[in-house]
């Protein structure tokens, strides 16, 4: 059973600041890591995927992966009110169709 | 073009009724999933089909029966609905075990 833990929220940041979201996972065989954003009343939307140790940047989002520490994070730079949502960390193995999700961290960006 | 679509969007019904939710994807993916998101927002896998073959069947009451007539469709039939079945049900699809893309969700309310 893969377990995925996310830092408990809610996380409140001022507009323009960096929001930092953390996720740890229990299965050392995990190979694929995803961040989803879910607005209230909407479906999860994939915003980042990362497979190798290090950083991956996409616009204002940076995902960081450290497999040795079993840790993946998401940084949101220059946070905007439109970034206010719940962010879900998801993990699976290369040969496993079953995504394990964390409970999510709710982010509120204050204008 | 909607990538993953579900019908209906809302479903309100009485306890004991039988209902179905339909899902279609036009992404050409070979794998489809059903997830349940409860009131605490935790997203949990229920079923998955790969090329019409059932590959994930979590501990779900046998009142829930998925059916995949082809790779692009996955339906969920629920018999004898109970109060505890009230939740949002998401369909998702992926190409093998890569990124999963979610449908808009079906909010089921059992009265």
Task: Give structural notes.
The complex is a heterodimer of chains A (111) and B (111). Chain A is mainly β and 111 residues long. Chain A is 0% helix and 54% strand. Chain A has strands at residues 4-6, 11-14, 19-25, 32-38, 45-50, 54-58, 61-66, 71-76, 85-92, 100-101, 105-110. In chain A, strands 2, 4, 5, 9, 10 and 11 form a six-stranded mixed beta sheet that branches. In chain A, strands 1-3-8-7-6 form a five-stranded antiparallel beta sheet, with no helix packed on it. Chain A starts with a strand and ends with a strand. Chain B has strands spanning 4-7, 10-13, 19-25, 31-37, 43-50, 53-57, 64-70, 73-78, 87-94, 101-102, 106-110. In chain B, the strands form two sheets. In chain B, strands 2, 4, 5, 6, 9, 10 and 11 form a seven-stranded mixed beta sheet that branches. In chain B, strands 1-3-8-7 form a four-stranded antiparallel beta sheet, with no helix packed on it. Classes of the chains: A mainly beta (111), B mainly beta (111). The interface between A and B is medium-sized, with 24 and 24 residues.
Which descriptors apply to this entry?
heterodimer, A: 111 residues, mainly beta, six-stranded mixed β-sheet, five-stranded antiparallel β-sheet, B: 111 residues, four-stranded antiparallel β-sheet, 11 strands
What secondary-structure arrangement, pairings included, does this model have?
The complex is a heterodimer of chains A (111) and B (111).
Chain A (H helix, E strand, L loop, with lengths): L3 E3 L4 E4 L4 E7 L6 E7 L6 E6 L3 E5 L2 E6 L4 E6 L8 E8 L7 E2 L3 E6 L1
Parallel strand pairs in A: 2-11
Antiparallel strand pairs in A: 1-3, 3-8, 4-5, 4-9, 6-7, 7-8, 9-10, 9-11
Chain B lengths: L3 E4 L2 E4 L5 E7 L5 E7 L5 E8 L2 E5 L6 E7 L2 E6 L8 E8 L6 E2 L3 E5 L1
Parallel strand pairs in B: 2-11
Antiparallel strand pairs in B: 1-3, 3-8, 4-5, 4-9, 5-6, 7-8, 9-10, 9-11
